[in-house]
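Notes from hallway chat w/ T.B., transcribed later so I don't forget. T.B. wanted the structure written out for a chain they're using in a teaching module, and asked if we could keep both sequence and structure tokens in one place. Agreed to drop them here.
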Amino acid sequence: MNKATKVVLALALAIIVGAMGFIVGFAVAHSVTAPELAALHPANAAASGLASTVNHVQQLLDDNALNPPSESSATAGAVQGLLSSNGDKYAMYFDAKQLKAFNQETAGSFGGIGVSLGEKNGAAYVIDVYPGTPAAKAGIKAGDTFVSINGVTKPKWSSNDVVQKVRGDIGTTVTVGVNRPPATGTGPGTNLTFTLTRENIVYPNIKSEKIGNVGYIRLGEFNAKAADDVSKAVQDLTKQGAKSFVLDLRDNPGGLLDEAVGVSSLFIHDGVIVRIDERNKPEQVLEANGTKLTDAPLVVLVDSNSASASEITAGALQDYGRAILVGEKSYGKGSVQTIEDLGDGSAVKFTTAHYLTPKKRAINGIGLTPDVVVTMDPLKQQNRATDTQLQRALEIAAQKAAGK
């Protein structure tokens, strides 16, 4: 399993065992009655009641439903219902295909069309189109907002919905409809349809360049290569003469906790990076790993789509006074999810803990407030001349490098 599984906390095993009991009960309920299951151990009484009810509903559907569910869809629905029963909006069931896609994404490569996504008012739009990919060849452009996928039209497509529908086997096709905003920035825009053949996409997760004497680094997500990629970028830009840095975490949805610690450690020599608050457990702390590369001034860009691992990194850098945060309040996802295999190629993800910044600031549902607030339409990121958040960050970084 990838690094995501290493986030597992002790409580997770107990919860998964309970979930496995439910799944097994669902499968064997025809041969083991609820009283018999309860008699095996008193603690099984509640679980047996749940299994009995689920089995009853399944039988009703099998006998009377106009469209009875398949075994796979019934299992997925039952498990997802259990995962979501406590209000955990991040809990998710992955079947074998979905788990493969998730692992490919966190590893940094996958099958798809070659775009990165953001959300504005709950609607997914294209942030960037990667050169040489199906999207680039077809003519999809940054700023295009998704309207339909494979003939299904929705008022708003979330980025997660787009990812699930657009990903698929290499060589298969997907048809996407987009609305392209007018050049003037006002009006209804133009609806366009593209049919693309999926290819293996190696995710270009990082962009870096020297702008004046400032090293600019944009990180797409905290995948398994994030810390190594940022480390290389810092070293390369330093050799080119960069005197300060801008780390752009806008539209970065997060990713692996280990990588957030790794990226933070490139700028912080020692100390707590994140505190993990788990139920019925002592507070766990993850500290800088001793890989610090630079003392150069640092500015971090965040916006309302900066979440999870992005907030861990930005929060730690802000707490230590190591970076100035510029942009808009971050998303506010301060929770840790654990992924556990179910032994049949599928897996479940659910929340096991909350995290706090080094100074014990809670982020979940709150977000991080930048030191310098710059409000901006996210679509203006497409053009550096209109990207006022980036301009302000570069200005501050240049001033800090000059000792001002």
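Follow-up for T.B.: Residues 44-64 form the longest helix (21 residues). Might be a good example for the class.
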